[in-house]
Amino acid sequence: MASGQRIAVVGVTGAVGQTTLKILEQRKFPVRDLKAYASDRSVGKTVTFAGESIPVQRAGADGFKDVDIAFFSCGSAQTREFAPIAVKAGAIVIDKSSAFRMDPDVPLVVPEINGAAVRAHKGIIAVPNCTTIVTVMPLKPLHDLGRLRRVVATSFQAVSGAGVNGVAELREQTMAWSKGEEIKANYFAHQIAFNLIPAGKFVEGGYTDEENKLVNEIRKILDQPEFIKGHYNIHWLEKKLAER
């Protein structure tokens, strides 16, 4: 590999990890050395980067020695366990999970919006939810011009957001439908093929955690705690219609 940064990708065999590798390669990111980490079930496999076959290892306490940048493309639990270890070893962590997004000491960054916030990092830089990123891009210039008070947004998300298991279930259910076989829901709570289901889990107030992520993350990125102070969901609309 060319001279450059020493990189680690945690969760390298998942959908996000694989995309991370592709982006690093497509952008010709200066990678001097690459370490590939995943869960125990993937240890022993290999991933390909820049024409080289990289063995997949399990992340451990000593796994981040001599790493400059660690991309965390795994779940929140694994990130909370290993990100502090990586920082202590001297790496800068770029976390794509929700583990540290709302931590006041961790900058939540969309480069085109608040790229300067990375200067305040203490070892970890958080990446917002995918829906937040595409929503805040047009909202920021509008907010600068007119001080937005309320936003009505509708998001339809792909099953790829649920990772490789979500994509696999959509494929399996679609194949079952095409063959006239019974469609079974194993990963999602309901059938996902030819269907729409709420993204995330329902929480207090009738919202889903995905809806709350969108609101709270936009507030943090724009540094506007009162932005979108009141947000409405389908339950609010149903109540208002019933009152008429």
Task: Name the features.
7 helices; alpha/beta; seven-stranded mixed sheet
Terminus-to-terminus distance: 67 Å
Q: What percent of residues adopt helix (DSSP H or I)?
A: 25-40%
Low-confidence stretches: none
Q: Which class of secondary structure composition applies to the elements? A: alpha/beta
Q: So what's the overall shape?
A: globular
Strand order of the largest sheet: 3-4-2-1-5-6-7
**If helices are DSSP runs of H or I spanning 4 or more residues, what is the number of helices?**
7
Profile the largest sheet: 7 strands, mixed
User: How large is the radius of gyration?
Assistant: 20 Å
Order of helices and strands: EHEEEEHEHEHHHH
How many DSSP-defined strands? Answer: 7
Average of the residue pLDDT scores: 90
Strand percentage: 5-15%
Structure description:
With 244 residues, the chain is of the alpha/beta class. 35% of the residues lie in helices and 15% in strands. A hairpin with a 2-residue loop joins strand 3 and strand 4. The longest helix is centred in the middle third of the chain and has 17 residues. It is globular and about 65 Å long. The chain starts with a strand and ends with a helix. The model has no long low-confidence stretch (mean pLDDT 90).
Brief write-up:
By secondary structure, the chain is of the alpha/beta class. The chain contains 7 helices and 7 strands.
SSE blueprint and pairings:
Elements: E1 5-10, H1 15-26, E2 31-38, E3 46-49, E4 52-58, E5 69-72, H2 76-88, E6 92-95, H3 111-114, E7 124-126, H4 130-146, H5 164-178, H6 209-222, H7 234-243
Parallel strand pairs: 1-2, 1-5, 2-4, 5-6, 6-7
Antiparallel strand pairs: 3-4
